[in-house]
Design brief:
With 385 residues, the chain is of the alpha+beta class. It has 13 helices and 6 strands.
Length: 385
């Protein structure tokens, strides 16, 4: 019984393939139409260019900073300043942290404010944020794309009011950021354009930026490198700069105290140069001790200040540009080969799907038509024999 059912299923599948073969002309027509449609989409779709770069972060020793913070710790604690912090605050930024930096709000907010050259409006320079809501005249290809595949974004943009061209977080005293919704959307679009990944094998940072023109891609890729370097420098030198700031303040105070004591001591020596009295000698000794102590403190703080400056320089991260940014010469997308493959596949899937759906409809709702089609296939089979 099971063998008979399997044979019937096999016969149905064979018959189905034969039916599809008889509709080969229809399938080729659908493939041709979809192929032409995909080629038109490829022709009108905005071109994209990718600029790439590779950087290698070079780690620095934290020994100087640890020694310096230990020497300054006791003095800073007397003034109510905590320089010890967390060991993580001065930790080396590992390569796997840079992709997170590229996804952060401050980073993306900086990137959408980078001035870029645009062809529409003709030969203008404006930021990505400004251009996102500027009144521009799109090209014919952009117009076709905006009202076909890009229709949802076109509708959303038309319904959105014109935003103010400023960051809503400026002059904000709140402990958190407030960003305009449309600015967040611009940052999300920018995030899709930027790729920052770690190469575990070589411990390098691979950067790629996709934009509408080679100039834009190159400018944005350069800005990504600069912003990443600035962020890493700020993170690595934050503790060293705090120590430097504290050392400078203490040095200024100690220098002022030294100058005052020096004047008092010099004036006292001038006034009592030829006097030999027990009271004069005691006061002279007291001022001399104050002067020696002030000079000793000033010399110590001067040495600490120089060490602090050196620590800032030492903890400033160094980046080696393994692969510099080069303006791309060829577009990265859209690719004609992918659109051709997509057109052929869509044509085959849609045409075969329509034929199967049509057969299913006839089998359920029009048995007479289904029987005629089946008999026609059988007649063709007999004629071939």
């Amino acid at each position: 019984m099971e063998q008979q059912i399997n044979q019937e299923e096999q016969l149905d599948i064979v018959w189905l393939f034969k039916y599809i073969y008889t509709k080969l002309k229809f399938i080729c027509t659908c493939v041709g139409v979809m192929l032409l449609l995909c080629i038109i989409i490829w022709a009108v779709k905005p071109k994209k260019y990718i600029a790439t770069a590779s950087i290698l972060p070079i780690s620095e020793d934290q020994g100087m900073l640890s020694s310096l913070s230990g020497n300054m710790g006791a003095l800073a604690s007397l003034a109510g300043v905590n320089l010890s912090g967390s060991s993580k605050s001065s930790a080396i930024i590992t390569a796997d942290l840079y992709p997170k930096v590229a996804e952060s709000v401050p980073f993306l907010s900086y990137m959408i404010d980078v001035p870029l050259p645009w062809t529409e409006p003709t030969d203008t320079v404006m930021t990505f944020w400004e251009h996102a809501y500027a009144d521009t005249i799109p090209t014919l290809g952009q117009t076709i794309f905006n009202y076909t595949l890009g229709l949802p974004r076109t509708i959303a943009k038309a319904l959105s009011p014109q935003p103010p061209m400023i960051d809503s977080n400026e002059d904000n005293k709140l402990p958190y950021m407030q960003i305009d919704k449309r600015r967040v959307e611009a940052m999300e679009r920018m995030q899709k354009m930027i790729s920052v990944e770690e190469d575990p094998q070589y411990e390098t940072i691979e950067i790629s930026v996709e934009a509408e023109s080679p100039e834009q891609a190159s400018i944005l890729a350069t800005a990504v490198i600069e912003k990443i370097q600035d962020t890493a420098t700020e993170h690595k030198t934050r503790r060293a700069k705090a120590i430097l700031s504290f050392a400078e303040e203490r040095y200024k105070e100690a220098n002022a105290d030294y100058e005052e004591i020096y004047k008092r001591f010099s004036l006292y020596k001038d006034r009592h140069r030829d006097m030999v009295q027990e009271r004069v000698g005691a006061e002279y000794q007291r001022l001399s001790d104050q002067y020696d102590l002030a000079r000793s403190i000033l010399n110590t703080l001067s040495s600490q200040l120089e060490q602090s400056r050196f620590a800032v320089m030492q903890n400033t991260p160094v980046f080696s540009i393994v692969n510099p940014v080069v303006m791309p010469q060829k577009k990265s997308s859209p690719k004609l080969s992918l659109h051709i493959v997509a057109g052929v596949m869509l044509g085959v899937v849609l045409s075969v799907g329509w034929l199967l759906l049509q057969l299913g409809w006839w089998q359920v709702f029009d048995e007479e038509k289904f029987r005629m089609v089946k008999e026609q296939i059988e007649d063709n089979k007999r004629a071939e024999k």
